[in-house]
């Protein structure tokens, strides 16, 4: 088997953290994600994943986060079978395989050119799925996406790395260009961003975290047309069996986050419509 050598650093290297979490969670009993494509990709990447020293709770938390975003993407697609999906900062995430959209969906995977090149070498091409190698904040790639269809933007582990001005400009372009749609992503308040910046795995990549959100409502005032539909804890699950998979200290932390507002805002999953 041909192994892919990795020369990614900073924000780009963080994709290996989320990929590895999803791959490892898929091997755990009661896996929620069952992401065999991620597990196969990890097996083909020449990178010392053991240096991440990833904890089981982290695998479960990142898998549950991905699962919630998958669910929102599936709901959007079910309601809009002729639509566009923009998967921003896709990294090596296999959402398109997990969600398996029908032929009416035009799916775009967007990330830096080096990341897209790696994606191309690891995963087979898929009808209806277009790879776009560009910084997400460069307006050129978005200008080339056909307007006129409902459009879902899904971004996991991305927005925290963007400068606020560039992110707001991107979201304003989305809501102005497409007739309707949704934007779903993970967010962090100031406390949460500090917590992420000190996470040993993120620190080891040298990635710089930039964007925090005061409250989900604040974004409505900054991006015309954006309306909050759902907010929930970043690593939550509605399924008590899934929550019980966490260690007791992690369960205690989630319990506190549900009850104490600034703690709850540390990391959230947000779903807006426009
Ligand atoms: C934590 S990883 C998440 C990857 C993927 N969404 C997942 O959940 O596995 C962050 C990703 O955002 C991408 N990224 C960060 N800043 C970006 C930018 N300005 N333009 C395009 N991609 C960016 C990185 O290259 C990386 O793939």
From TrEMBL:
Upper classification of the organism: Bacteria, Pseudomonadati, Pseudomonadota, Betaproteobacteria, Burkholderiales
PANTHER family named in the record: S-ADENOSYL-L-METHIONINE-DEPENDENT METHYLTRANSFERASE YKTD-RELATED, S-ADENOSYL-L-METHIONINE-DEPENDENT METHYLTRANSFERASES SUPERFAMILY PROTEIN
The keyword Methyltransferase is assigned to this record: yes
Source species of the chain: Achromobacter arsenitoxydans SY8
Gene3D superfamilies assigned: Vaccinia Virus protein VP39 (3.40.50.150)
Protein name per the record: Polyketide synthesis O-methyltransferase
Pfam family, one: LCM
Gene Ontology terms describing biological process: methylation
An example molecular function term from Gene Ontology annotations: methyltransferase activity
Keyword entries, A-Z: Methyltransferase, Transferase
């Amino acid at each position: 088997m041909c192994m892919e050598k990795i020369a990614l650093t900073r924000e780009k290297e963080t994709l290996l953290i989320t990929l590895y979490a999803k791959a490892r969670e898929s091997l755990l009993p009661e896996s929620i994600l069952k992401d065999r494509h991620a597990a196969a990709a990890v097996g083909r990447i020449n990178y010392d994943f053991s240096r991440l020293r990833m904890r089981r709770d982290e695998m479960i938390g990142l898998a549950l986060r991905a699962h919630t975003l998958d669910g929102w993407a599936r709901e959007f697609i079910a309601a809009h079978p002729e639509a566009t999906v923009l998967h921003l900062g896709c990294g090596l995430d296999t959402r398109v395989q997990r969600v398996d959209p029908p032929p009416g969906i035009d799916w775009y995977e967007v990330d830096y050119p080096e990341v897209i090149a790696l994606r191309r070498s690891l995963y087979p091409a898929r009808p209806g799925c277009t790879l776009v190698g560009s910084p997400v904040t460069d307006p050129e790639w978005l200008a080339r996406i056909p307007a006129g269809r409902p459009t879902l933007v899904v971004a996991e582990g991305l927005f925290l790395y963007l400068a606020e001005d560039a992110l707001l400009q991107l979201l304003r372009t989305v809501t102005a260009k497409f007739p309707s749609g949704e934007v779903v992503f993970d967010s962090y308040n100031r406390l949460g961003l500090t917590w992420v910046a000190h996470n040993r795995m993120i620190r080891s990549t040298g990635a710089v975290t930039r964007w925090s959100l005061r409250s989900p409502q604040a974004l409505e005032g900054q991006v015309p047309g954006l309306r909050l539909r759902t907010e929930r804890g970043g690593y939550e699950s509605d399924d008590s069996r899934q929550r019980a998979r966490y260690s007791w200290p992690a369960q205690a932390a989630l319990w506190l986050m549900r009850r104490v507002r600034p703690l709850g805002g540390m990391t959230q999953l947000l779903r807006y419509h426009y």
